[in-house]
User: Fold this.
Amino acid sequence: MNETHDPRRISWVESAQGTTDFPIQNLPFGVFRSDGRGDPRVGIAIGDQIVDVSACAHLGRLGESAATAAAVCDLPVLNHLMELGREHWSALRREVSLLLTADSPAFRADSRLGEKILVPKSEAELLLPVRVGDYTDFYASVHHATNVGSMFRPDNPLLPNYKWLPIGYHGRASSIVPSGTPVRRPQGQLKDPNSDAPVFAPTRGLDYEMEVGCFVGGGNALGNSVPIEAAEERMFGLCLVNDWSARDIQTWEYQPLGPFLAKNFATTVSPWVVTLEALEPFRIPAFERASGDPAPLPHLDSRANRERGGVDVTVEVSLCTAGMRDAGLPEQRVSRGRMADLYWTLAQMFAHHTSNGCNFQPGDLFATGTISGPGKDARGCLLELTWRGAEPLTLPTGETRKFLEDGDEVIMRGYCERPGTARIGFGECRGVVLPA
Amino acid sequence: MNETHDPRRISWVESAQGTTDFPIQNLPFGVFRSDGRGDPRVGIAIGDQIVDVSACAHLGRLGESAATAAAVCDLPVLNHLMELGREHWSALRREVSLLLTADSPAFRADSRLGEKILVPKSEAELLLPVRVGDYTDFYASVHHATNVGSMFRPDNPLLPNYKWLPIGYHGRASSIVPSGTPVRRPQGQLKDPNSDAPVFAPTRGLDYEMEVGCFVGGGNALGNSVPIEAAEERMFGLCLVNDWSARDIQTWEYQPLGPFLAKNFATTVSPWVVTLEALEPFRIPAFERASGDPAPLPHLDSRANRERGGVDVTVEVSLCTAGMRDAGLPEQRVSRGRMADLYWTLAQMFAHHTSNGCNFQPGDLFATGTISGPGKDARGCLLELTWRGAEPLTLPTGETRKFLEDGDEVIMRGYCERPGTARIGFGECRGVVLPA
Assistant:
């Protein structure tokens, strides 16, 4: 186990010591712009501060591998850091961890170190951390697939391929936006089942989908598969993803080639990328298949995947309507799910994705699909939570929701916690709905 | 009508005067690397020569708008030229046309002009012309959709949405390759209908799809739709696309979210982008809908689209097997189709794609889907041509084909011809199948 997880390690950054998503054991990467101070560049979150990695490099205390990594951190995306490979990004995170430790020689030698390398988050804007080349969305929650399938195909909710391969489809990279970007309600063709013809109108079925995304760090050449054993080495880290969806557009358009305009109007990602290394203490066995479920084919199976292929991330969705804001009410949590409930692991998705020779490039993103669990409170989208509108949610103002209304804000959070380890979090993935 | 189409215009480049895809009326853009001479850069095809656009700029004869365009032509992709907008790329093409005209003042003043600005195609490598951000594939041929649908759903070949909206899905941008790149036979999960379980094996249903692609020149901001009237202004030009497909992988994986690994292992594009301006003389009315077909909804309809939304491009597919090459036999044409048979126009696809606010960026690519016509000889993929293998093709060697075998080369061509105009062509889009 990597020493960066040591729960006894404490940072001299005070806000990293108490309740925070970003203790010294996390150190996720992002891209920020500080108010009026320089161009967008790479940062690492620590408590309520951002480590300016380029500024760290100027201290002259980084080893060669970390210094090489820091040298591409004055750029406005993480892609260049990713391209360098795990050795470099890992060395950089390890040395920044040492620099931030309470007994760091650099801090003992210079009590003004914080002024040199930290930027308060309150004085910075967090940007899209990665230039995403291609974006893929999976469908890895068997609970989600079964719930949605049973609404549309009551006799046959789960299709025969589901337990044999991680179903996925290509999404739109251009419309990926960072947390905080408002999302305009899309228009599209909607067809009432009782009508002969569709109409073009603003969606009446706007939904979120609570997902986790994985940024690819190291790619593969076209034509070369990546074996499941080698997949995790190529993963940089995880973020939260809101795969906004328009259910009525989707229902009308999706056959036979899958979702298109129902999804590609916006996908929101959280700004901090939590590295796979930071998640090491939270690795768990892959989903336990029921008796009767098929064993994965060999290219989707490995001992390491069975034993530690899962990641125990808890994800939560909250809503805050305009009415709630006007009444001074706090957001209301509407679901809490777990990545542990996913039928397929990240390594299985990665191996499947490249099994035909398809190439990943540094900065590509793939997401899990909606994370839903067996219980009603673990359903990761409104389609499931309200059972297609049949069971509306009631909010503290007395308002009800079948789907999202204008002014609603969706707030997603994720975290890992386990006795004997430091809790780490993903920060927030937010978006408010604007009228069409 | 633009003067660059004038069929009387003749170039001093001799190879542009006879039978060629690239007379002076065409002037498509591409990216080339000349043997041992400098970095990849933008070129324009003329006969068997390539105009080195940067070299033209050095002559000092370009006007301001064209010079601005030429200034970004020492770069290895067309994206920067596209970003400048139609005014600039159009001015550049117009001035290069003048420079290449037989009575060009520049040529009359300098008989060695050719040595300064031309590179023989035989001494150059043609590269992928564009860094494709996102790639979308449509399904715009009603003949293709009906043929394929009738194989999989005999009672219900065409789904109810088909005539209301241009069905499309997102493809993979990373695996787009230029003509001439060999394509490795993909492996994947295949399930025999008589078997309980799938196997992981090389595809036995490798196919091509003959398509035309459209490169987006001018994009739109996320959240802003582009009305159909404004769509063509944002299109840079067209190329040929081979959307390689693995039919057995597709059959097993595609429900419910559409094609994924069956398509994303490779997509081949032709190297020359034929501008919409060069295609002006070949514009035709949009597809004439049958009585009983619905009228397009208003956002997919315009007078200009009805009158001139179509493009009369003929597309041909030829095969050459290893056996044919060994026997010294020429390639064999297996189909000839027409873009005129597409149910949806490019402008309708563009308007639909942005109707929900989805953003296009300069360099994005969308393709038509397989171009098939009403006749058997106009079927643009083997799935249709051999009717899922039931009617194999017989080749001059006596070999038969249900799907592609290793060593088979697929050659696609496209051209426009019409009395009173100069014929223009698209060049070739080639790829040979390598063993898994």
Q: What stands out?
A: Residues 225 and 355 of chain A are 5 Å apart (CA to CA). Chain A has a mean pLDDT of 96.
